[in-house]
Write a structure and sequence with these properties.
- By secondary structure, this protein is of the alpha/beta class.
- The chain has nine helices and 13 strands.
- Strand 4 and strand 5 form a beta hairpin.
- Helix 6 packs across helix 9.
- The longest helix is centred in the first third of the chain and has 12 residues.
- The radius of gyration is 18 Å and the shape is globular.
- The two termini are 26 Å apart.
Length: 289
């Protein structure tokens, strides 16, 4: 697909930069309230928000929930070794670098053209230890040394759907191989009624991890609307009380499901394998209106 560039003519108005990338039309839309902040959209769907003057500021609901996981993954300020599957505008990697200086991070983003755009328009802090690889998420994860990462974040969407090969127990085997003992895996899961995909992903994670939690809007958990849920998994106990408190105090409060309630939520769903994996469902058009 040929690359095109538009300055001050994108749908976001003056100052929008738009280019064709591998995943579609990428737009960096200015934030009217913050001079060095931009929202990344792919084919009109909001992906992430970055404020270069305040990289610790997370505005999207699901990214705030990821931020809570980062904050509780280790004592405050302690550096982390983190792997980010899916780059977007590198929002969470920037957050880790800002809140946990001297962290070492790897970002795996398949869309090389998107990486080039973001690097140029929203450059990373040269002092941050962030390495970006343009390759498939599962292939990139396979190159991470065993027991290297204290945190692995999966936030991969292609055409607003998580690819099938990132939803299976075999994929989680690779996650577990790369995680250090006591490390945390967290993933952005998107689903709507009847929540078959979300239930299957919880069953899959429970097949590989001893401790799980799910952070989501209560309306999403009740199957009333399409939305994002953040899965948190580890072989070590999770800080459930503090995670619950933080999620409940967000501008858009979320519920944390865990234990028997989360087991009951799966409704008898079985773990997903490579042989039967499918991509997550596409969101309805109304989600982005």
């Amino acid at each position: 697909m040929g690359k095109t560039r538009k300055d001050r003519r994108g749908r976001g108005g003056a100052g929008t930069v738009a280019e064709r990338v591998d995943g579609g039309l990428a737009e960096l839309v200015p934030d009217p309230d913050r001079p060095r902040a931009r929202t990344l959209l792919i084919d009109g769907a909001p992906q992430s928000h970055v404020d270069l003057d305040d990289p610790a500021r997370l505005t999207f609901e699901y990214q705030r929930r990821f931020g809570h996981v980062v904050d509780l993954a280790a004592p405050p300020g302690r550096p982390l070794r983190a792997v980010h599957l899916g780059g977007g505008a590198f929002t969470l990697a920037r957050y880790v670098a800002a809140t946990r200086p001297r962290s070492t991070q790897q970002v795996v983003e398949r869309d090389a053209a998107l990486v080039e755009l973001v690097r140029r328009e929203l450059p990373l802090d040269p002092g941050a230890r962030i390495r970006v690889r343009s390759t498939d998420a599962r292939a990139g994860l396979a190159k991470v040394p065993g027991e290297w990462a204290g945190l692995i974040v999966a936030d991969v969407f292609s055409g607003a759907r998580t690819p099938a090969h990132l939803t299976s127990v075999e994929f989680l085997d690779e996650v577990r191989r790369a995680l250090a003992p006591g490390g945390v895996y967290t993933a952005n899961l998107a689903d709507g009624p009847p929540l078959a995909h979300l239930r299957g992903q919880i069953a899959t994670a429970a097949h590989r991890f001893a401790h799980l939690a799910l952070i989501a809007d209560p309306a999403v958990l009740r199957g009333r609307r399409f939305g994002n849920a953040v899965l948190v998994a580890s072989d070590a106990p999770l800080p459930l009380a503090e995670l619950t408190r933080r999620a409940a105090s967000d501008p858009h409060p979320a519920r944390v499901a865990h234990g028997r309630a989360l087991t009951d939520f799966t409704g008898g769903a079985v773990p997903v394998t490579d042989a039967d994996a499918v991509a997550s469902p596409a969101p309805p058009d109304s989600v982005f209106r």
